[in-house]
Amino acid sequence: MPFAETPLRDEYAAAVEQLARRTLDALRDGAPVAALPEPPDLEATGFEATASRPLLAAVRVLGADLFAPQLLAGAEPDGPTAALLARARRTFPAPAAPSPEAARVVEWQDWAVGRFLARTPYGEAAPVPPALPGPEEVGWQVWSVRMSQLSGLALPGLDGPVHAGARAHALDLARGTVRSLLRHDLATAARLVRWLAWTGAEGLPPRLEVEPVLDRIRLAGDGSARTGLGLAVARRLLDGSADGRRAA
Questions:
Q1: pLDDT exceeds cutoff 80 at 26
Q2: Model pLDDT for residues 42-73, shown as the tens digit of each residue
Q3: Which of 90, 133, 178, 224 is the most exposed place for a label (fewest CB within 10 A)?
Q4: pTM here?
Q5: What is the torsion angle, in degrees rounded to the nearest 10, for the CA atoms of residue 230, residue 235, residue 237 and residue 241?
Q6: pLDDT category of residue 32 using cuts at 50, 70 and 90
């Protein structure tokens, strides 16, 4: 019933924002997400043991981004966060997707989490899903939207066909970013500019000035913690590529 579902959706959305905020704070502080102080709704007997369903749903939504604080600091995925992700995957299996393309996006998101969990005692690597159609097949507009949905894969320590597509079609990522900015779709622009920062960290020539885009989204965006987390990851990737260029 809609009246019953709306408060539940609101509770889950609030949990995503809360966890994104904690991850953003961890990214700034260099601490593992699960090692931070417990939120008020959890008992002090342990983060993973007392995790509520809304929190586990939020863990499922954020996925591989929960490891961003460690990965961007050059460290391995931490055990407590891995345990939490593994539990969330057991509690909330992959949701039914409205289309084969959307299902493929979910498969790639789960592949990313599986790759990191395989580096801990809490999981094993998942098989590589079939590749998504490239811009030459579906057009750069459709492809860039799909890439925005896969922005959580733009992290150090991951590589696969999605990343190869980002390297090969950085210009299309830039086109998608500019199109999103012109349409005032700042959420999509934030996800795409993260890929552009990732390609810069890979040593590829920039197809768009990333810093002004990050500043524009920060000033005019929705101000949500989840968007802020994506921008912070992009900033760290951008800073890493700049450090590499200076060192060279």
A1: yes
A2: 333 344 444 589 999 999 999 999 999 999 99
A3: 90
A4: 0.87
A5: 160
A6: low
Alpha carbon distance 178, 135 (integer Å)? 16
- Specify the 3-state DSSP secondary structure of 183: coil
> Which among 140, 194, 201 is positioned nearest to 171, based on CA atoms?
140
Query: Nearest CA to 186 among 154, 230, 139?
Result: 230
Q: What is the DSSP string of 63-117?
A: GGGGGHHHHTTTPPPPHHHHHHHHHHHHHSPPPPPSSHHHHHHHHHHHHHHHHHH
Contacts of 212 (CB under 8 A, 6+ apart): none
Contact at 8 Å (CB) between 229 and 24? yes
Q: Do residues 12 and 54 touch, judged by C-beta distance below 8 A?
A: yes
Query: Nearest-5° angle of CA 32, CA 190, CA 79?
Result: 15
The amino acid present at 210, given as its one-letter code, is V
From the list 113, 136, 133, the residue with the least C-alpha distance to 125 is 113
pLDDT at 128 over 80: yes
Is residue 78 within 8 A of residue 39, CB to CB? The reply is no
d(C-alpha 1, C-alpha 171), whole Å: 45
Q: What is the largest CA-CA distance in the chain?
A: 60
Q: At what angle do helices 186-201 and 225-247 cross, to 10 degrees?
A: 20
Work out the angle at residue 69's Cα, subtended by the Cα atoms of residues 191 and 204, and round it to the nearest 5 degrees.
50
SS (H, E, C) 227-243: HHHHHHHHHHHHHHHHH
